[in-house]
Write a structure and sequence with these properties.
With 269 residues, the chain is mainly beta. Helix content is 7%, strand content 41%.
Amino acid sequence: MKHTILVIIIFWLAWQTGLSQNQYETKIPNIRKVLIEKIPGTLLIEQSQNNVFKIETDKEPSEIVEDERTRGLKPVTSSYDNTGLGLSLVQSGSNVTISGPNQFDATGNYTIFLPPEVEVSVDLTNPFSGQLVEIRGLKNSLEVKTLSGDIKFSNITGPTVFHSISGNIEGSFSDLNQEAPSSIISISGLIDLAMPSNTKAEVKLMSVSGKIYSGFEIEKEKPNKNKDPRAGELAQISGIGQKTSGKINGGGTSLILQSISGNIYFRNK
């Protein structure tokens, strides 16, 4: 019996140690903006419940081989792991940068919990960055750039700037911030966006070789007869690719959805 209890205690302690190794948490007051870059694997960003910075991962910590000559020194050309999770967290004034020091390791899943009032910028254009970034419930300014990774989001308000070279961009807004414009652009991926049916916006939708579908009634702008000086009084009746612009629900902030070769799905909910 004593042996069984001892085994259970050892197992519980090992499990707790594993939890502590896969989690990092800190409080940093008065932060305005968070930059997240070069994250390997997949990335999920959520709003924290207690106004703290928190990072979780399912990645097992790798063994660090220390170079005796580096004692007391820090890398100059790359970030360094100060979280114990293979990531670097560095504060500079009112900004915080979270980045992956090992750009060649693209495994593992990371979840980052951020305070609600911070602006967020995610740069995964490094070719060794992960293939997916997902954002849930953030209520402030968002900027996300990926090379080939998909962008997914839900229950956000923006304003947003989402841009991907070959990834899909899909998700939903809980509301559209009216204080600044938003744009969602994918070069070769699709765009699938859902917004509340009462959203007010000036929209511009364009796809060169893809198709555009909308659940909103778009009050289209009148054609401009003088875009090309050579055209004189001639009205423009067609252009390159599919595009439309106008107002939804009487107009509001600017919203641009643009893809070169992917379809655009603009949904009301």
